[in-house]
Every structure is written in structure tokens, then in C-alpha cells.
Amino acid sequence: MKDCTVLVVGGAGYIGAHMVNALLKTKTGVITLDNLSTGHRELHPGGLFIEGSLGDPQLLDDIFATQRIDAVMHFAAYSLVGESVTDPLKYYRNNLAATTELLDAMRRHRIKRFIFSSTAAVYGEPTQVPISEEHPCAPTNPYGATKLAVERMLQDCDAAHNLKFLALRYFNAAGADESGKLGERHEPETHLIPLILKVATAERKHVKIFGTSYPTPDGTCVRDYIHVSDIVQAHLLALEALLSGKDSAIYNLGNSKGYSVREVIDVARRVTGHEIPAVESDPRSGDPAVLVADSAKIRKELGWQPRFENLENMIKSAWDWHQFDKVS
Predict the structure, then answer these.
(1) Which residues of 113-135 are buried (b: 16+ CB within 10 A; e: fewer)?
(2) Do residues 311 and 270 touch, judged by C-beta distance below 8 A?
(3) Omega into 283 within 30° of 0, i.e. cis?
(4) Which of 143, 214, 251, 259 is catalytic?
(5) Which residues does 211 contact at the CB level (< 8 Å), separation at least 6?
């Protein structure tokens, strides 16, 4: 991959910044495009940075005309489920319409490789667990609907324009870079592990448990957590596969093991040494009881093997980052 250049769209966000960091370590050429609406310029690890929108056709033409780009990685979606319900057009405008402009620019400039950050939200309410890629897709919110629409658009672009893509359906991204100097920073924060750690750093008084009567061992929701570094590794394997001529495909990204909300809080208490008060609250509408991935396909076809499957390791890396970010 040393002789290729990747355009990372959304490379100043949580997963995108980790991706840029990993590509730089492999000596891959990296160009980042980010409008900084949710990303952070100070967290961008390096390489050429261009501030702008993936929906700006003139900017995209300028980038593709002046830079040799071998593949595009897309991390620039809006991803707050609740916000997507209250402001769906924001999500269709950015996640779908702007991505259409990006793909059209790639078509004009004959760039044929695309790696897409998709989501388990495309499945909606699961009818079976663990969830394989063959599970029916019936998203229950605009966020998941926009991601599924892009997947279908990619399949059509492959058929019409020979655009080869790999779409990676993440379950629950977690953790931070081993250096402790790169991690997750959202405003507002909605992810469980960062919310828990904000209680440990005294930024919040307590963490809420939404629902305690689910049909799970302790009554709280169960989710499949995957370390951000393992997500990045999957993208590196995806890039190698596309560069080697692999056909388009869709893969789940998860550890195939679920942890309940109470389990996550208990592990965080052990890792941080803080009490972390928890307050029980009503369940949120549309929250499935269990979401766990069947990730056998990517393990078999791309040789992906997560290194950070242990929940304690995920929370420890996130805790190191949160302490660094609080004082930096």
C-alpha cells in the first residue's frame, strides 16, 4: 500500500482520525477531506488536510484532478439516531445526497475503489441473533435508512460503472488508540462508554440505564462492542483486497459477543476505580434487547482477526484517552 494514495472523507472524526493515523504508519499516501462539523482539526494526525464538504462537486473535481487517488474511504456521515428522527432531511442531505456527489465525482475521474462505513442500524429490529449479513434489512430510523440507501447505490454503481466497494457494517465502536493521545470526542456525546467515563472524570453526575426489564440475563440491553483499532485494521484489509482486485462485498464488523449495560458499567468501575453512580430510567423507543454480530464472513474472506476483543481493554484505552483529553 506504500505506492497508493487514499482520500479519507471525514478523517478528522473519531474513526476517521484513527484510520488516517494507521494509514500514515503504513506509509500510505493520505488526503483528508472534512468540513469539521463534527470532526476536530487538532485530532487530525497528519497528511494533507482539506477543509470542505464531500457534497461540493467543484471541490471534489479539484481534488481528483490534482491528486492521484487510488481509493476513497468514507467516514463522513451524521450518526445520531435520535437526531435523525427529529431532523431527517439533515441526514438525507449529508449521508445520501452528498455521498451521491462524491460517487459522481469518482465516476467522472474514473476512481474505482470505495470503502464505506456502514452500520448495524440497517438491520432494524433483529429477528435472529447473532446477526449475519443475510439478515433482512429494515432500518427503523432515518440514520439506518440513509446508510442502507448508500449501500444500494453502491451496488448500482458497481453494475453501471464497475465501481468496486466494500461496505463495513459496524456494531458499537469503542476504545481509543494505544498511545492514549487519540480517541473519541463527540458533542453531544451519546455513546455509552464515553458517557460512563465522563462520570468517572466528574463531568457528569451519573449514567442513565435505559430499561431494566429486557429479556436478557440482567434486564438491560446487550450490545456487541468493537475496538476502534480493530475497525481500522478491517479497513486496511479491505483496502488491500480492493487493490488486489477483489469484487464488491458487504461485511459485519463486531466481536460476536455481547455485553449488557450493567456489565459495561461494572467493568468501567473496575478500570477507573470510581463508583460511577447509575440511575435507572425508562427504556428508549426502538432499542432492541440484543444486538450481536455474526462476523464470520469477514474473518474468513479477509482474514480479519480482532486484537482487542476484551471489554476491559477497550474501556482501559478509552479511559486513558479521556484523562489525556481532559487535561490537554
Answers:
(1) bbbbbbbbbbbbebeebbbebeb
(2) no
(3) no
(4) 143
(5) 219, 220, 221, 281, 282, 283, 284, 287
pLDDT tens digits along 113-143: 999 999 999 999 899 999 999 999 999 999 9
Helix boundaries (H) for 67-123: 81-86, 88-91, 99-108
- 143: annotated active-site residue: yes
Cα(231)–Cα(252) distance, integer angstroms = 10
Q: For residues 186 and 176, what is the distance between their CA atoms, to the nearest angstrom?
A: 13
User: Each residue of 311-323: pLDDT tens digit?
Assistant: 999 999 999 987 8
**Domains within the chain, CATH numbers bracketed:** 5-174+225-253 (3.40.50.720), 192-223+256-327 (3.90.25.10)
The three grid cell numbers given for residue 15, joined into one nine-digit string: 474513526
CA distances from 225 to 53, 119, 160, 175, 302 (A): 30, 13, 36, 9, 20
**Bond prior to 188 in cis (omega within 30° of 0):** yes
pLDDT attached to residue 327: 58
The cell for 98 is 452528498
Q: Beta 207-210 vs 164-170: how paired, if at all?
A: unpaired
- Which residues pair with residue 9 across a beta bridge? 33, 74
Contact between residue 172 and residue 318 where contact means Cβ atoms under 8 Å apart: no
* 81 φ/ψ sector (left φ>0, alpha ψ -120 to 50, else beta): alpha
CA nearest to 317, candidates 258, 229, 239? 229
72 SS3 class: strand
Distance CA 246, CA 259 (A): 34
Rg (CA), the chain: 19
- Nine-digit cell string for 38: 463534527
